[in-house]
Structure formats: structure tokens, C-alpha cells
Amino acid sequence: MSQPTLHELYRPLGHAGPQVSPLGLGTVKLGRDQGVKYPNGFRIPDDDEARMLLKLARDLGINLIDTAPAYGLSEERLGPLLRGQRQDWVIVSKVGEEFSNGQSRHDFSAAHTRFSVERSLKRLDTDYIDLVLVHSDGNDLAILNDSEVYPTLAALKREGKIGGFGFSGKTVDGGLKALEQGDCAMVTYNLNERNEKAVIDYAAGHGKAILVKKALASGHVCLSPGVDPVRASFELLFEHPGVTSAIVGTINPLHLAHNVATVAKVLRDN
Predict the structure, then answer these.
(1) Share of the chain above pLDDT 90, in %
(2) HSE-CB for 15 with a 13 A CA cutoff
(3) What is the C-alpha radius of gyration for the chain, rounded to an integer number of angstroms?
(4) Could you tell me if 51 and 82 are in contact, meaning their C-beta atoms sit under 8 angstroms apart?
(5) Cβ contacts of residue 152 below 8 Å, gap of 6+?
(6) pTM for this one?
(7) Amino acid 217: pLDDT
(8) Is the pLDDT higher at 32 or at 162?
(9) 7-269 — its CATH code?
């Protein structure tokens, strides 16, 4: 029996965005192993392993890839790894958070936002990024109301350097505010945490995109015996019409194939 793929299950990333797979590949584990909240330790894959993982993802129909300056060396590694394949991928990156020497710091100024996007373009070896999200520190409304990050991203979109922009936040009020002018919100939504559902509801009614982070609760979900937590997680996500894609950060090829097979079955059964 052949491995199910996602090729025929693409959906638009918002009202006018590119077609994306319902599962995206998160790449924090390609670049950073400090200060990450996973239940088990891991080793950052070498270039051959990373190249094989990316090839497997594409073969399985994944075309959405999520990175960030705060993910250590992720962007710098993806540039060479994706060379010659730019047309095959929809790339999401971020602004606002920097990670160095084991510490995060945040800067939402106009100057840093522009610097960050220009640096991501160089690192990723591309002349445009499909979607750039603001990497919130949790003060969502203050960032949106008092900083220059959103107007600067809007200007970069007009200049053609980014295809769209949005917000990866931590509050309902922030997510709702971010979608008023932005194209996408990245929310936490899983079997353990559902308080940002109102943001997904809003997106569904306004033609905006939703990317889900921590879809599998970063590997922490525990259910009763006999219940597949991966299937239960994806059933919850994809029963909501507002969810565009779930970002999963596995570097295990078997887990990736299982996630794809599960999403394919959930979507085809619905």
C-alpha cells in the first residue's frame, strides 16, 4: 500500500495567498537546540539528514516551510539546502525575536524589522519571502498598537519583498487585532489549549489564513489508552474551516510520514 500524500489537499493561504499543504514543516530543530520546550532531547540533523528530511517532506506533498531568525542557524542552513527548489516551497519566516547566547530578545522597531527581513532574504537566498510573521513576546496589543512593525511589514509587502504578513501571538485580543490588517495569524490550538479558537473563527469569516503552532502540544498530549493522539489532534484542527495548515517540527522521518498519512486520512474522511 502506497504512502498517502498531501498533493491534492492544498488550500489557499488566506484570501489571495499561494496554495499550501495542510501540514507545514517547522524547522526550529534544524538550527537550535537551546531553550526549546520539547519533552525529549534531540540532536540537530547534519546537512545530509536535513536534505533527506526536506526531500521526504516534498515527496509527501508538503510545500510549506516555517523558519525564523530566532531558530538559531535554521534560515542560514535552509538557503543552501533549498537552492534550486525555490518554486517548490512556500516560505514563512518571522521578525521581532532574536536568539543568541542562549537568550531571546525582542525588537519591533521599523529599522530592525526592515533589517531582519533583508537579512532573512540573504540567508534564505531568495528575493522574496511568501509570509512574514511577527514573533510576539506576549505583549500582543502593545506590539500592534505602539510599535512600527506592522506598518513596516505592510511597506515591505508593497515593495514585493514579502508576499504577506501577520502575527504569531499569544492572546485572543492580539490575534483578532492582528487579522484586521494582516493576512495571517499563527495560533496555539491543540487538545490541551483551545482558548485562541475565537481567532480561528474570525479568520474563517474574513478570508484570513491561520497557521497552527503546537498542534501536537509539542509532543506532550496524553489521552486515554487506545486513542491515537496524533489523529485526535488533527481531527480537532481540521474540523474547523478556519485552519489553513498545522506546523509540525519533527525531524524524525517516520513521525513525518505518520503525520502526513494521518492528516491525509482525516481530511479525506471529512
Answers:
(1) 86
(2) 11
(3) 17
(4) no
(5) 110, 113, 114
(6) 0.95
(7) 81
(8) 162
(9) 3.20.20.100
